[in-house]
Design brief:
Rossmann fold, about 375 residues, about 15% strand, alpha/beta, globular, six-stranded parallel β-sheet, 2 domains
């Protein structure tokens, strides 16, 4: 019988982590067929693609409703793939609002279920943990504090480390890399990372550019926006054109941009961990619709929303959220992060501690080993 795995990833970061997992699976077990819902990186890794969630990335609770028909259509398609292909294992990667429902369907079909990069239910949905325990066989977590949380709620859990430690590896001379990226070597670089979703870019980039412009009027800096992918470029260019300040746009090179930057403005998300790994001081900003924010405040059970602060166990990085996004205050703090050497050293030391707590590189290989242990033995 053909050994078969279906991997489900929803957004750009999930596609990246899924692609590394696919490569690790194929390296360890070339006979295993890997089917996938995901994006271009999974396809490049050798996945047989069965569905694509591209352009469905949204933020906030109310924003999901605008794309509900597309979500339901994609969900129906993936369910039919499960029924037709009958994989022995389904691996869900992040994207919980979508993937949890598909995991439940897989369990009904008698398919084993593994969750890699688990839902952050410790922050927003602790009532969902018992729901998860009824159909998720194994949880491969990427934060050490998640082990006790999931174990206390009856799930079989293992810490594999964070996959960003594999993908965010920038070495070499910063001066040379700055030249390669098109920067001079005379002035500090400030990075703006407005997120991987169109809604994030539209809501966050104007405020980021306003704060960065205020800083550039007082101090000589070079500004650059990191575009998560090609689909965001036209919107970024449209917003950039409204500001009378030189700003470079770099696509798909966020790790390198962060590495050469003295400080960064970053949308809340995994990019904050990228910045921690390369040791770049940062400020977190985030904004959703007012209704989504009101719902989130009722559901979220933690004080910080930035992953770097959650992993640190305290607020080491400032967070400017919703109506508190004040370009003047952000500009002042950004200036401190760039030019106050004492403050820079203090924050960089805290970021080093965050990086150390993420485990060792090799999360994809360890997750692959777990996944393969859940498959039947390879036929002779």
């Amino acid at each position: 019988m053909q050994r078969k795995i279906l991997i489900m990833a929803g957004e750009a970061s999930g596609d990246l982590h899924a692609s590394r997992l696919v490569r690790a699976l194929k390296e360890s077990a070339p006979d295993v067929e890997v089917l996938g819902m995901g994006g271009p990186r999974m396809r490049e890794a050798g996945t047989t693609m069965v569905a694509s969630p591209e352009h469905l990335g949204v933020m906030g609770f109310t924003e999901v409703f605008s794309k509900l028909p597309s979500f339901l259509s994609l969900m129906w398609k993936v369910k039919k793939v499960m029924e037709r292909e009958q994989p022995q294992l389904v691996i869900a990667i992040d994207f919980p609002g979508f993937n949890l429902r598909l995991c439940k369907h897989a369990k009904r079909l008698g398919i084993s279920v593994m969750y890699y990069i688990a839902p952050q239910v410790w922050a927003w949905g602790q009532r969902r943990v018992k729901f998860m325990a009824s159909f998720v066989d194994k949880v491969a977590v990427v934060f050490p504090f998640e082990v006790d949380f999931y174990r206390e709620h009856g799930l079989d859990v293992e810490f594999v480390g964070h996959p960003l430690l594999e993908s965010v590896r920038v070495d070499g001379d910063k001066t040379e890399l700055r030249r390669t990226l098109g920067f001079s070597t005379d002035f500090p670089v400030v990075a703006l990372l407005p997120g991987s979703r169109m809604q994030e870019v539209r809501r966050l980039l104007p405020g980021m550019l306003t704060a960065a412009t205020l800083l550039s009027e007082r101090r000589r800096v070079e500004l650059a926006v990191g575009a998560a992918d090609n689909a965001l470029l036209s919107e970024i260019e449209k917003i950039r054109a409204r500001f009378d300040v030189p700003v470079r746009v770099l696509e798909g090179r966020s790790s390198e941009l962060l590495y050469v930057s003295s400080a960064a403005l970053i949308a809340s998300g995994s990019a904050t961990l990228e910045a921690a790994i390369v040791g770049t001081p940062m400020i977190i900003v985030y904004r959703v619709s007012p209704l989504s924010w009101a719902i989130a405040r009722r559901l979220v059970a933690i004080d910080s929303i930035g992953l770097v602060n959650i992993v640190a166990g305290k607020k080491i990085v400032s967070e400017y959220l919703q109506n508190d996004i004040d370009p003047v205050k952000i500009s002042d703090e950004l200036s401190e992060l760039v030019f106050n050497e004492h403050k820079r050293r203090e924050l960089i030391a805290e970021l080093d501690s965050v990086e150390s707590s993420l485990g060792r590189p090799g999360a994809s290989k360890r997750a692959a080993v777990l996944a393969l242990s859940m498959l039947p033995e390879s036929p002779a």
